[in-house]
Amino acid sequence: QLKVAGHVLKSEIERFRRENQGPVLDITSRYFRELTLGSFASLLTDENDQGEPILVGTRSTGTRVLVERMSSGTRDQLYLALRLASLEWRLARHEPMPFILDDILVNADDARSRAALKILGELAAKTQIILFTHHRRIVEEAQQLATISGLHVHELGT
Question: Which helix (H) or strand (E) is 40 found in, with range?
Fold first, then answer.
C-alpha cells in the first residue's frame, strides 16, 4: 500500500507540474525581469547532472546563470518572483488571500526595492499585501510611491 501511495503521490505531483509549470514560469519570468531591472531576461527549467529539475536564469545575451551563482539579493528577488507568480496564478482562479512578506527587500538596492514596491502596489488592487520591514529606506520608498499608488504605510509605535 505504501508503494502504491508513493507512486500515486509522485504521479500527481508530476501532473500538477506539467499543468502549472509553464504558465507560472512565464509569470515568474516577467516578475523576475522587472525585479532585476532587466538584468535577467527570463527563467528556464533544465536538469542538473542527476536528472533533477532546476531553475536557470537567462540574461538578454542568452547566457545562463544557475541559481547558486546568483547573488543573495538576486536569489531573494527570484524567491519573490516565484511567490508573486504563484499568487497571481491563484488569484486568477480563487478568492483573494492576504500576502504577507517580512523584510524580503533587505538585500535589494534602492532601484530594485522601488521596482518591487511598485509591483506590490499593483497587486494590492487585487488582494491585501502586507510588507513588514525595519529598514527606514524601504519605508521612505513606500511613502514616496504611496503618493501615486494605492500603497498605505503604517508605522508601528508612532
Answer: none
- Mutual angle of helices 72-91 and 110-123, in 10-degree steps: 10
Partners of 132 in beta bridges: 102
Per-residue pLDDT of the chain (158 residues; tens, 9 = 90+): 788 887 777 777 666 666 666 788 899 999 999 999 999 999 988 888 888 888 899 998 999 999 999 998 999 999 999 999 999 988 988 999 999 999 989 888 989 999 999 999 888 889 999 999 988 888 888 888 887 776 788 888 76
Nearest in space to 56 (alpha carbons), one of 28, 34, 85, 37: 28
Residue whose cell numbers read 536564469: 57
| Residue 10 near residue 3, CB atoms below 8 Å | no
What is the spatial distance between Cα 38 and Cα 151, in angstroms, rounded to a whole number? 24
Nearest to 17 by CA among 25, 6, 27, 5: 25
| Cα-trace Rg, the chain | 18
The DSSP bridge pattern shows strands 42-47 and 53-58 to be antiparallel
Q: What is the pTM of this model?
A: 0.80
